[in-house]
């Protein structure tokens, strides 16, 4: 069994995924602050409307720069993985007014393929603009983007196993030069979570690879989902790690977390949940077995156990959400796009997982020691990051379309690592009912509710005071003309008596 598989089993059995994921987030934040990564271009007033999500911005040092037109900005980043000889462009799903810039980027970067990992509409929410001709369904085979002088023609469309394959023709109107662009749209990624099995995802990845569109000797492939960080980051992480395994002909020595941390230095927030990190491990393990031609007898039970659990989840009807164990922003009826997870939520998740560990049995001494060691590292990394309250509270800032502007640049950039979630977390382990002592989570929850209630009372008092003030203003406005009229009347009477 390789070290990757051992790590996976350890993290899985002891519910360490939230802790491992939080450590990666903290390390990435420290790296961002240490190297002073800037997102000034994305925050310029003229570029704000070009961002699908407020807190997902490309770094200035790795953003794609458009070569022509009035603006050189697009929310897309170049990701380089030298160890795998890979170069990707990760982009947000185009908005209607940025679709032309998206195709301009494809043209200028000599891109041979676009890999789309989402549907246009998911859960009644528009995740991406329909930037290619819809085809036979509406008898539309051409789209014109006059702002960039490009025309897109649909040549071929075919639905294969879990994905659409399209051949598109991109034509430059002025020069009449044409290029063929392949379009892969993977449609089997659930709206909320990760695929039930890495097998279908790996089949899709291998189909893309066979066309040679990911190779280093062609233009970088454009990969996008909605925000361009969750599913897109998973795709690039798995592909790069499998290249490294194939090159070394071994799974030993591969550090998936280190690869992810390196990729995060090019685009913020890659891999948005600990479930996506877990799925990435699974896909790398299964893909590594395929590449190394390990027989079924030698394959560890990691994948089998995963498929057994996920198979139960996939059977209809789905189990109801556990509102008692899910953080508030993971419950039902949350309007899309889901708000980002902040550090407090991650800490609550960690405590929930620790409670499950205690309920399901005491850990052995070695695992207990490792858990404490990992927690210590996480605490240290959290302590080394200075976060202002205004930057952590991303739930409220996401709903406000105006930027605060007056915040310190480094403080504002910390919120970039609490990114909007394409896909909220799927909990893989059942939360047991608590019958006796109150958990730390419930205590924190009650304290938050009390603070919220107190704050609401203050707000209500202020509103009532404001309402009374407005009533008094209205009354004064009524009395003013009466007072003036009465004064004029009395003055007229006095003048009349005086002169007559």
UniProtKB/TrEMBL annotation:
- This protein's superkingdom? Eukaryota
Q: Where found in the cell?
A: Endomembrane system; Endoplasmic reticulum
Bias (Basic and acidic residues): 348-364
Compositional bias ranges of the Polar residues kind: 398-407
| Ranges where the record places region Disordered | 309-364, 390-453
For the keyword 4Fe-4S, the answer is no
Q: Does the keyword Cell membrane apply?
A: no
Entry's transmembrane regions: 478-499
Q: Which InterPro entries match?
A: NR_tyrosine_phosphatase, Prot-tyrosine_phosphatase-like, PTP_cat, Ptpn1/Ptpn2, Tyr_Pase_AS, Tyr_Pase_cat, Tyr_Pase_dom
| Keyword tags | Endoplasmic reticulum, Hydrolase, Membrane, Phosphoprotein, Protein phosphatase, Transmembrane, Transmembrane helix
What residues does substrate bind to? 191, 225-231, 272
Q: What residue stretches are annotated with the Tyrosine specific protein phosphatases domain?
A: 199-278
Q: Which residues form the Tyrosine-protein phosphatase domain?
A: 4-287
Q: What EC identifiers does the entry list?
A: 3.1.3.48
Please name the top-level EC class of this enzyme: hydrolase
Q: Which Gene3D superfamilies match?
A: Protein tyrosine phosphatase superfamily
Q: Which residues form the active site?
A: 225
**Which SUPFAM superfamilies does the protein's record reference?**
(Phosphotyrosine protein) phosphatases II
One Gene Ontology cellular component term attached to this UniProt record is:
endoplasmic reticulum
PANTHER family, per the entry: TYROSINE-PROTEIN PHOSPHATASE NON-RECEPTOR TYPE 61F
Family in the record: Belongs to the protein-tyrosine phosphatase family. Non-receptor class 1 subfamily.
Instruction: Return the protein name.
Output: protein-tyrosine-phosphatase
Please name the source species.
Sinanodonta woodiana
């Amino acid at each position: 069994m390789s070290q990757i598989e051992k790590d996976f089993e350890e993290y899985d059995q002891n519910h360490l995924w939230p802790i491992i994921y939080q450590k990666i987030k903290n390390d990435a934040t420290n790296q961002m602050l240490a190297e002073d990564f800037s997102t000034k271009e994305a925050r310029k007033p003229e570029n704000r409307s070009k961002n699908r999500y407020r807190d997902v911005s490309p770094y200035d040092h790795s953003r794609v720069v458009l070569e022509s037109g009035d603006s050189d900005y697009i929310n897309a980043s170049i990701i380089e993985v030298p160890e795998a000889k890979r170069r990707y462009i990760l982009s947000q799903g185009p908005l209607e007014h940025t679709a032309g810039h998206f195709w301009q980027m494809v043209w200028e970067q000599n891109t041979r393929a676009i890999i789309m990992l989402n549907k246009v509409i998911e859960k009644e929410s528009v995740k991406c603009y329909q930037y290619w001709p819809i085809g036979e369904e509406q008898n539309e085979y051409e789209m014109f983007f006059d702002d960039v002088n490009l025309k897109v023609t649909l040549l071929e469309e075919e639905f294969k196993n879990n994905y659409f394959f399209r051949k598109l023709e991109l034509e430059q109107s002025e020069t009449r030069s044409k290029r063929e662009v392949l379009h892969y749209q993977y449609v089997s990624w659930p709206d909320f979570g990760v695929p039930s099995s890495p097998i279908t995802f790996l089949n899709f990845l291998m189909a893309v690879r066979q066309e040679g569109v990911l190779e280093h000797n062609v233009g970088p492939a454009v990969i996008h989902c909605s925000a361009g960080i969750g599913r897109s980051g998973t795709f690039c992480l798995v592909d790069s790690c499998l290249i490294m395994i194939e090159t070394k002909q071994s799974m030993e020595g591969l550090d998936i977390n280190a690869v992810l941390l390196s990729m995060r230095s090019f685009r913020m927030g890659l891999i948005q949940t600990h479930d996506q990190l877990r799925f990435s491990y699974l896909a790398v393990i299964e893909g590594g077995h395929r590449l190394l031609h390990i027989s079924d007898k030698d394959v560890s039970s990691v994948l089998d156990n995963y498929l057994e659990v996920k198979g139960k989840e996939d059977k209809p009807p789905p189990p109801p959400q556990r509102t008692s164990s899910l953080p508030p922003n993971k419950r039902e009826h949350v309007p899309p796009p889901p708000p980002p997870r902040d550090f407090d939520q991650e800490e609550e998740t960690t405590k929930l997982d620790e409670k499950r560990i205690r309920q399901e049995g005491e850990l052995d001494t070695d695992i207990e020691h490792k858990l404490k060691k990992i927690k210590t590292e996480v605490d240290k990394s959290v302590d080394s990051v200075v976060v202002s309250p205004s930057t952590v509270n991303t739930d409220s800032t996401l709903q406000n379309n105006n930027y605060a502007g007056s915040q310190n640049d480094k403080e504002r950039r910390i919120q970039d690592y609490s990114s909007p979630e394409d896909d909220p977390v799927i909990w893989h382990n059942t939360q047991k009912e608590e019958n006796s002592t109150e958990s730390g989570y419930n205590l924190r929850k009650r304290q938050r509710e009390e603070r919220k209630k107190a704050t609401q009372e203050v707000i209500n008092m202020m509103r009532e005071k404001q309402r009374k003030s407005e009533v008094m203003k209205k009354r004064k406005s009524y009395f003013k003309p009466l007072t003036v009229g009465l004064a004029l009347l009395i003055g007229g009477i006095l003048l009349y008596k005086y002169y007559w």
